[in-house]
Structures are given as C-alpha cells and as structure tokens.
Amino acid sequence: MPFIFEDSTKDAALLLKDVAAELQTEDLNKAGRIFRAVLQSVRDRMPVHDAIQFSAQLPVFWKGVYFDQYDLNKVPVKIRDAHDWINYIRNKNAFAADNDFQQDEEITAAFRAVFQALQRTMTDGQLQKVKESMNEDIQELLAA
C-alpha cells in the first residue's frame, strides 16, 4: 500500500480546521498552537501505553506534534485538580500563552473544543479512556 503524502496532509489540515471551527477562530496558527498544547498535555497525563494507543488515531502530521519533546521518564504527570490542569496547558503553550489565553476560561474552552473535534475523528472508547484517566474535576471541565 503506497503512502500518499497528499492524503496525510489533507487529513491533518481537516482536523486543524475542525479544531479552529470549535475554537471559533479563523487563525490556523493559533488553532495549531492550542491544539498542540492540549494534545501534549493529554499525552503527558497518560501512562506511556495509553498515550501510544491514543496517538494511533491521529493523522501522521499530528502524531509528530503529539510526540514532539515527549519524555518517557516524566510521565504520567500527576495533576491533582482543574486549576493545575489549566496551568499545565498554559505552560505547554508557553511562548504564545499570553496571546492565546487571556483567562483560565479560555483554556477550559480550548480543552473542550479540542475534545469536540477529536470526538468526530476518534472512536468513543479511546476518548472515554482518556477522560477516565483524569481526575473528576478535570473531567468536569469537559462537561461544562
């Protein structure tokens, strides 16, 4: 089976546009930064095996972003509450956080937006597994 770069690029672009639509922005650079920050935060919260399974459903380009700077020796990160989770996502978007997130509510909305977009591309079981790996108050951020 040949690997078709155009299809892979198209899938990655469609997912990014879906994330941007959920974020209600036309700025694809901003959407990409936020998507990366949330993806990598979710990744760091999971045990290695679960993180790898999660990545299997991402388009090839986003897999590269997902695993960029992944340190197996530092996961899973212990995050005890929603406030710590919000700050963790903010820190993953370190250089642009001040532009992308003015308030904590924007990070919560971004977290929800990314999950909404992923729900349309991933199996429910995979996202449910991710949600269940998080503390209850972090899960509540997705329901708000």
Automatic annotation (TrEMBL):
Designated name of the protein: DUF2267 domain-containing protein
InterPro entries found in the cross-reference section: DUF2267, DUF2267_sf
A Pfam family annotated for this UniProt entry: DUF2267
